Amino acid sequence: MSLDTVLSRIDSDLPDALDRLxxxxxxxxxxxxxxxxxxxxxxxxWLVEDLKTLGIEAAKxxxxxxxxxxxxxxxxxxxxxxxxxxxxQPVDPLDLWHRDPFDPELQDTPKGRxxxxxxxxxxxxxxxxxxxxxxxxKAVHGSLPARISFFFEGEEESGSPSLVPFLKAHADELRxxxxxICDTGLFDPETPAITTMLRGLLGEEITITGPDKDLHSGSxxxxxxxxxxxxxxxxxxxxDETGRVTVPGFYDGVPELPDDIRAQWEAxxxxxxxxxxxxxxxxxxxxxxxxxxEMIWSRPTCEVNGISGGYAGDGFKTVLPSKASAKxxxxxxGTQDPLKLRDSFRAMVRGMVPxxxxxxxxxHGASPASVMSTTDPAFERARQALSDxxxxxxxxxxxGGSIPVAGYFKDILGMESMLIGFGRDDDLIHSPNxxxxxxxxxxxxxxxxxxxxxxx
Amino acid sequence: MSLDTVLSRIDSDLPDALDRLxxxxxxxxxxxxxxxxxxxxxxxxWLVEDLKTLGIEAAKxxxxxxxxxxxxxxxxxxxxxxxxxxxxQPVDPLDLWHRDPFDPELQDTPKGRxxxxxxxxxxxxxxxxxxxxxxxxKAVHGSLPARISFFFEGEEESGSPSLVPFLKAHADELRxxxxxICDTGLFDPETPAITTMLRGLLGEEITITGPDKDLHSGSxxxxxxxxxxxxxxxxxxxxDETGRVTVPGFYDGVPELPDDIRAQWEAxxxxxxxxxxxxxxxxxxxxxxxxxxEMIWSRPTCEVNGISGGYAGDGFKTVLPSKASAKxxxxxxGTQDPLKLRDSFRAMVRGMVPxxxxxxxxxHGASPASVMSTTDPAFERARQALSDxxxxxxxxxxxGGSIPVAGYFKDILGMESMLIGFGRDDDLIHSPNxxxxxxxxxxxxxxxxxxxxxxx
Lengths: 456, 456
Prior knowledge:
The structure is a homodimer. By secondary structure, chain A is of the alpha+beta class. Chain A contains 14 helices and 18 strands.
């Protein structure tokens, strides 16, 4: 009965919950761009104040980068820790947005009502599902159902440079029985999911320098090495003809999918053609002979996230540039060692740079994959709670995205994480016109209330 | 005697001539960027007014792009036409300039006094050498030594889209006995040169589209094709291991260097190590077995002048981009057919694009190489006049840069061109901190006075 009261309270409070989310979405907390530093700070302040309205002792905690927000609510039963991040991705290319990314609005679409704006799904909307569930619980019961710690990060989209030092410095304060992380998706709009396999991420930026200044391609072309040519050869060599990554030792620690998991995934009925078709593609680009779900959940990848060099403005400029750069990232699985792969990648690149050119490397994050242990009965109880809320039963799935914090929680705090989120594949996270379905938000809040009831 | 008087006048007028050049350099006439359209127009107005001070009937002549400046001075003897261009290259990367590119100044350097600013060498300073020679001649003699037409273009740095239509529409007005073009360089600071071989230019911009929107590399990486990967494979395939360009049919019409020209070039004592060393390189990047002068004067090339795709800002963004673009140019020699090569290049690129990706092409100029006929005795007279001014005798040389106008003058007006210029290899044209030596400017003006005397 008491859960039903909480769920009713969530339903009636939805308009106000949406208003609160809109406030948070209006703060352009882009962590990767130093120009937005004060906005990231402002988003942290907003969250501290919001947690305080729940009677939670919360504070902004400084780091050498953007601040963490930490709050503690006392209570009986298990000690749960909830993690989300309040920073967002950059918004470029801005001209592809249909409205200001930081002027969010509710929009009716053929697939339902959505919240449109940067961070609506990743991760402000998701973060607030848990906060709103707690707010409703508190309103109905006067207190939360368990001892709960809140831990919000402001650097998730920029490689989390302060996360590990902060966890190490405050391990005793932050350690709980179980972490709840809301930064993943539904399997499909009707099927909720608990993500138990997460790919790791290795980010590398390489800059090739050829001539020590930009040259005229007429005066020097043919005789002087062009760094774009060097960079293109390196990138072209990163995959072989079958789509496999060629970095030496890359597949060390990459496990084959166990038969039972493979069977479970096949039963999900993943529509590869529809998945690619929604983004205008028709061919799987990964390793030959792998299923689509393997490619995005359980196989490692190499992507070029950005490339630049020479003149890229309007018109044409016959420059032979001094420098060319690329941002390259690797998604990692199993026990692939990111630092070992970084060394192997850099050695491979160095071997392809002509003697009179040079290469500089900048590392952007290096986190291994995470595979959750689902033997804790809490996983099965949460799966049942989710199944009660949604049309179809919840599934244990993998995720292509990297959520390194789960690995750090395990390594540094010895704490398992349960990854539950309500994003959809078409949320356009990291892209122009990001959205979050109002249904994801509403049923997400309700799902957390059910899970809190089930775990306590 | 009268030539000496003109030369003395040039010497005494040098400070005023530098002042006039500074005025012209302050106008940011970047033709390739639409934002500077009114400035390109303003530079044309400035030149019209300056020619009028010489008593020359001059006017700005509209085209569908930037205007031409045309002036005619009556006179006896041969009809000469002088060509230069008043538009300049873009200035990016702006942060590598040591001062505002359009706030020029005279600077003392270890190699002598220079005029620093965008366009100082390419081509405003060079253009003004001829105008100033005419000004001195007129001041001394009251008239010019021949019938001279002035033809200044404002689109040379953006592919000259209006040039051919304008030449065709005004062929009778513009046709002269010989064109004088000042947009080339000295062989070295002591050795003047008449350029008789000019490479042509084919410019191509290609844009690869993979997914129809930017994607999250975690959600899609491994399954969705990355257009940067497609583009890198194309660029990497444009040269083979020996440095030859792989576009089918590329070497059709590329002649071997005649033995006499090869011997003449070998006698020039070109220091390949010093040429590359000045820009921080040590290895020739062109076709194996070719000399450095061949690589930059008489062999065709393929360069990537710019590349872009995905996130190139500060930090890291795990985007799998929808599009990737490159600006690619080919320097052409002999009788290579630019339009045929454009077709062959595009067919090769199309063949490398996966079925579910697409490619768009934008052409940026297509001009064949020019090889001058030096049988006209004017060439030898001009060579002698140059040799009188400079420490070492003038040479007939090739040029890596493309000056398509010489080919158009021949094809459309049936007019030979004599290319004489005073730029140095270290002028940083098309690069940050462009300069023109005051000696180039001063002796350039004196050289034109001597050439006018020799040709008339």
